[in-house]
Amino acid sequence: MSEAQRNPSYLDPLVVSRLSNMGIKARLVVEGFVAGLHKSPHRGFSVEFAEHRQYMPGDPLRHVDWKVYAKSDKFYIKEYEEETNLRSYILLDRSASMGYGSESITKFDYSASLAAALSFLMLKQRDSVGLMLFDDRLQHYLAPRSAPTQLHQILTELENASPASGTDVGSSLQSLAERIKRRGLIILISDLLDDPEGVLMALRYFRHKKHEVVVFHVLDPKEVRFDFDREARFEDLESDDHVVAQPWRIQREYAKEVKEWRNYYRRICRENKIDYNFVETTTPYDVALFSYLEKRAKLG
Fold first, then answer.
1. Residue 89 and residue 144 in contact, taking contact as beta carbons nearer than 8 Å
2. pLDDT per residue over 82-95, tens digit each?
3. What is the full DSSP assignment across 115-147?
4. Nearest Cα to Cα of residue 278 among 226, 223, 238, 236
5. Which of 77, 134, 156, 238 is most buried, taking the most CB atoms under 10 A from its CB?
6. How far apart are alpha carbons 34 and 36 in whole angstroms?
7. What's the rounded Cα separation, in Å, for the pair 85 and 75?
8. Residues forming beta bridges with residue 276, ordered by sequence position
9. What is residue 236's three-state secondary structure?
10. Coil, helix or strand at residue 214
């Protein structure tokens, strides 16, 4: 049984068949990356030591440097040169607001499907990929690997995750940026419902450290247009705040504010060479992904 068949909810076999004929490459110069080339497909155990980094939950204990622990009483992981050229990190927002869905799919389920498809795509071309789940702090970390078992581990993490807490995108990203030492491809998937300045500061920090950064801004169509047809009580999923409103009275102003908010993210990302992509959950995730990949291919 294939990895996709064991985890059907987030990786549709029909999408897999289409992804199998496509590729993705970094547009900016990333450490160790040469399009279409890999150092060696047969490195085996002859990989070279690269650096130490702080231990994070999810790291295999076999990679702990016990000599360093004996001296410092702190856990550090020994990292090695990968046989792959591109190291990718998928950062998935699992805050409570991601649990909203006005129709058949929540923002979290949609985003998890995107994460699964991207993981399959990069592992297929033998690049390493890891997964980080966060809300108001980093919750789960699966270190980047290119092993055949990595896809199953990523899909298992996604299946076991659910939106559960508040949001602090900026702080979570800043914390993660401090831990990632080697440059690579950072893919953030989030509704970005947080202080834009904090989020953008963290994204700029990734760019300062020479990472390439891609953002998938995922929203439900009701959050974009606010086209509810009756008076309702609206509750904040991450607090006890609520308000009773007649949507048609504020819809136009609301939609204008949301458009300006999205345009602000888009403009600042463009200025900092961050690849910003807005998607609504009514767009099939494979369609959104293929549209993005085609755009990257044209930018070359």
1. yes
2. 444 578 999 999 99
3. HHHHHHHHHHTT-EEEEEEESSSEEEEEEEE-S
4. 223
5. 134
6. 6
7. 27
8. 215
9. coil
10. strand
Please give the residue that has the higher pLDDT: either 140 or 106: 106
Query: d(Cα 36, Cα 221) in Å, to the nearest integer?
Result: 38
Torsion of CA 242, 283, 90, 46, to 10 degrees: 160
d(CA 16, CA 198): 36
Separation CA 13–CA 245 (nearest Å): 43
CB 10 within 8 A of CB 159: yes
Across 180-281, where does the E strand assignment appear?
185-190, 212-219, 232-235, 242-245, 275-280
- Structure token digits, residue 174: 């800043």
3-36+85-299: CATH superfamily: von Willebrand factor, type A domain (3.40.50.410)
Stated pTM of the model: 0.73
Which residues neighbour 31 within 8 Å (Cβ) at sequence distance 6 or greater? 182, 183, 184, 210
Residue with the bigger pLDDT between 42 and 139: it is 139
- Which residue type, as a one-letter code, is found at position 4? A
d(CA 146, CA 170): 28
In the chain, domain spans: 3-36+85-299, 49-83
* Tokens representing residue 167 in the block: 């949001």
pLDDT at 274 (0 to 100): 94
Cβ–Cβ < 8 Å for 77, 63: yes
Burial 255-285 (b: 16+ CB within 10 A, else e): eeeeeeebeebbebbeeeebbbbbbbbeeeb
Instruction: Give the phi and the psi of residue 271 in degrees, each rounded to 5.
Output: -65, -25
Contact (CB, 8 A) for 124 and 135: no
Taking every pair of C-alpha atoms in the chain, what is the biggest distance, in angstroms?
A: 67
